[in-house]
Every structure is written in C-alpha cells, then in structure tokens.
TrEMBL record, chains A, B:
Keywords: DNA-binding. Residues 30-49 bind DNA. Residues 7-67 form the HTH tetR-type domain. PANTHER family: ACREF/ENVCD OPERON REPRESSOR-RELATED (PTHR43479), ACREF_ENVCD OPERON REPRESSOR-RELATED (PTHR43479:SF11). This is TetR/AcrR family transcriptional regulator. It comes from the Bacteria. Transmembrane segments: none annotated. Gene3D superfamilies: Homeodomain-like (1.10.10.60), Tetracycline Repressor, domain 2 (1.10.357.10). InterPro entries: Homeodomain-like_sf, HTH-type_Tx_Regulator, HTH_TetR, KstR2_TetR_C, Tet_transcr_reg_TetR-rel_C_sf. SUPFAM superfamilies: Homeodomain-like, Tetracyclin repressor-like, C-terminal domain. It comes from Rufibacter sediminis.
Length: 196, 196
C-alpha cells in the first residue's frame, strides 16, 4: 500500500514535469521549478525521483513502449491493412489528445537523453517506423493500398497528425470525433469528392 | 553594376546564414560564426548586413511574401478548387526542396523576430492560413471536396508536408516527382485503393 502511494506520487511528479518541459523546454526547466510546481520542497521530491534525466527517460520510454505495444496488438489483429493503418493513425491521435505533454516531450526533447538511452530510444523509434512501413508495404502488395512510395507515405501519415500535439485543445470547438473523422477521411479517402 | 554586385553578396550572406540558423538554431549562431563561414572578416560583412536580427527578418519576410504572392496567383487562376489546393501543396513542396534552409528558419526561428516584426509576421501567416482555408471552404461549397472540418483539413494539409523540410534530400533515393506524386495522391485521392 505504501509502495502504491509512492508510485502515484511519482507518476504525478512526472506528469507535471512533462507539462513544464513542454512549456519551457527540457533545458529551460530546473528541478527547483518542478518542486515549486509540484508543491514539495526539493529534498522531499528527491525521495520520489532522482534527477531530471531520470524523468526524461521515464517519459520518452513510456511513450515509445506504449506505441510499440499497441502496434503489436494492431499487427496481430484480423483486420485488413487499411483498418490496421487507420488504427495506428487513431493511436497517434489518441495519445496526443490524452497524453499531449508526454508525447510532445518524447517528440522534441528526446535529444537530451543520456547517450546510452538516446541510442536505445532511436532504435525503438526506428523499429516502430520499420514495422509501420511494413504494414504499408504489405497493404500495397495485398492490393488494398494505392501504389505509393513507402517511405514518403509513412512520413506523410506520421506528419499529418503532428500538428494536433501543438494545436488541438478540447475547448477549441472541434470535437475529437470531428478531428479523427477529418484526418482519416483525408488520409485514406482523399480530400477530393468522388463523383457518383 | 556596383549595386548589383553588393546585392548578390548580401543574398549569398543571407543564404549561408539560413543554413547556419537551421543547423545551430538562431540563438546558437553568432555573427562571428557567420563571417567565418562566409569567408569575410566581420567588419567587411557589416558593410552588407547590419545585424542578425536584420538577417532573420529578411529570411522570414522573404518566405512569407513568396507564399502570399504565389497564393494570389493561384487564387486568380481559372482552375478548379482541387487544382488550386494541389497547386498550394506543390508550392510548399517546391519551396521546401529549393529553399529548405530559409523555410526551416521561417518555420522555427520566427519567434526570435523583434516584437514589431513578430506581430507583422504572425499577421501575414494568419492571413495566408485564412485564405488557404477559404479555398477549402469554397471547394466544399462547390461540391468538389468532401465535407470535412475546414480547420482540421487546413492543418492536416500544411502539416502533412512539413516533414519534407527535415528529411528530404535529393540523394536519398526518392525523386521530387515521387515525393510530389505520393503526397498529392494521399491527400487528394486517399491511401486506400478504390475498387474498380
């Protein structure tokens, strides 16, 4: 029970850290800023977390692991390639709208990871991209997808959703459903209306 | 003649500055770095350019003006809305692949503009986005485009091409034609292959 409470506190500190890193950048945030925002004195906070580097590592690997675990589930499902790719785009949107600060840190501040962690993180990302690209490749082979350049398609999909991280907020008058529908429509059916 | 030579030198300095800002960031680049890269002593360089701020302003407003001028030409053409929007996406790709460093600076370092220039730049950008969104709106009204959320469509199009600035290089085995075809296919026709 004591363990669990400690874990929750730790998670809460990491969440607040992610928001600070997103606002002020990893380099621009000090442990003192964090302690202040958390409402603890620094000495107490070090009981939960040992360093800024540890926080960054926890955030980046937490996000990378979520992506890879979910990708595994999507790959092993019975769906068509189109459905699998749609599920991946939805996963990106879902993480950006529910864990926006963490995703932003993993997208922008990963370069401040310590050298060893940095290499591991890059490998995970490249592994994820390769498996994502394979789904595109297999979908084309199966005749479900248009004949496009695989790498260009991969980066176009990944990039088309990136703005959401910077821009989307629940109170801007666009629902999550509208967001998802418009993006999926454009990427999979195209903006041009097909004449009946 | 003397004037023209001075202009060319100035343009060359600004081009090299854009590459340095892209590599090392605006804050991370000093006028000394620039002079070294240009191969001039600093005193001579100041004959062509007065400050880092002036360079940044020239780059950002140069890019913004190009976008707005081209948008004007596209708007006033006789093409369909689909063709106009495709021409805008091509314009973004064209600028990113021919003026990659300048576009990158205008996309990332504009926040270091002096307060007055900053406001003017933001106004230009917002003006461009509004006119781009109007083309989407009018295309939907004309029945050429799918019924999508206008803002989401705008940011999805603008964002889908952003990765090109960071990733595309002529020697990576993907031609400009493949790049353009794949991106236009995905955004306007969709990745899903239509069954005949």
């Amino acid at each position: 029970m004591a363990k669990k409470k400690k874990d929750l506190r730790r998670e809460n500190i990491i969440e607040i850290a992610a928001q600070l890193f997103k606002q002020k950048g990893f380099s621009g945030t000090s442990m003192r800023d964090l302690a202040e925002q958390v409402g603890m004195d620094a000495a107490t906070m070090y009981h939960y977390i040992s360093s800024k580097d540890e926080i960054l590592k926890t955030i980046c690997f937490g996000i990378a692991t979520t992506y890879i675990t979910q990708l595994g589930e999507i790959e092993s499902s019975d769906s068509s390639y189109i459905e699998k790719l749609k599920a991946l785009v939805r996963l990106h949107l879902h993480l950006m709208t529910t864990k926006g600060a963490e995703v932003s840190v993993a997208n922008n501040d990963w370069k401040y990871l310590s050298p060893e962690a940095l290499q591991e993180f890059k490998d995970l990302r490249s592994h994820y991209e390769k498996r994502f690209a394979s789904l595109i490749e297999e979908g084309i082979q199966a005749g479900e997808l248009q004949e496009v350049n695989r790498s260009v398609a991969l980066f176009t999909l990944l990039s088309a959703v990136r703005w959401v991280e910077l821009w989307w907020k629940p109170n801007r008058g666009i629902t999550l459903e509208e967001l998802e529908n418009t993006i999926l429509t454009i990427l999979f059916n195209g903006l041009e209306k097909k004449q009946p």
